[in-house]
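debug: dumping io for the single-chain case to check the tokenizer round-trip. Nothing else runs in this session.
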Amino acid sequence: MIDDPPLLTVRRRFPRPKPEDLAAFDGALTGHVVDAMGGRGALDHRIKPIGAAKSFCGTALTCDAGPADCLAVFGALDVAEPGDVIVCATDSFANTAVTGDLLIGMMKNSGIAAFVTDGLVRDTPGIRAVGLPCFASGVTPNSPAKTGPGMVGFPLIVGGVAVAAGDIVVADEDGVVIVPFARIGETIRRLADVRAMEADLEAKVKAGLKKPDFYSAMIPPSRVREVD
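debug: decoded output
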């Protein structure tokens, strides 16, 4: 590389979901959202709540901190609007944390809804005390540098899933799901059907259902071979 890269590259303007679109996902179970998108959309299973399990939904604000650095997270603080979810890529780096309780506290003070990363965090008791939902791949006391380079507001891959600023992020105890901006309307429409079907099946299970109707319809006795 001939020239040193900028410490931060920032994209502030990107399409954002409408407030009513975000409201449609408030309280939605991640499993229902995934079903509404055809069975996919969840980040890597290792990305789980740190400190305490708290569900949330919000607008993705992406930042790419890279390994062993956190300057991009501070850059995201400068761009974020209330209700945003900072989604931080670290290349899944596992030797240092990308943030701790004090930076998580600054996020809460800024009105940010949650922090999500494919990397690690630190200061679990402090994160628990701050109370902001924090989802990460794990915990380590090791601290990062703050020297960059980093990027804010650009498309990323986090936990094996493409994430862009302006996508909707939904999370609960099961994990984190990304609803792409282009699929928000479609997913909202299908989510209503998923909720109705789940409620119907739940009622049947509570009433004693032992085997779903589709099983018998899909596998007639003529297609089953019994072996002693």
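debug: round-trip ok. The radius of gyration is 20 Å.
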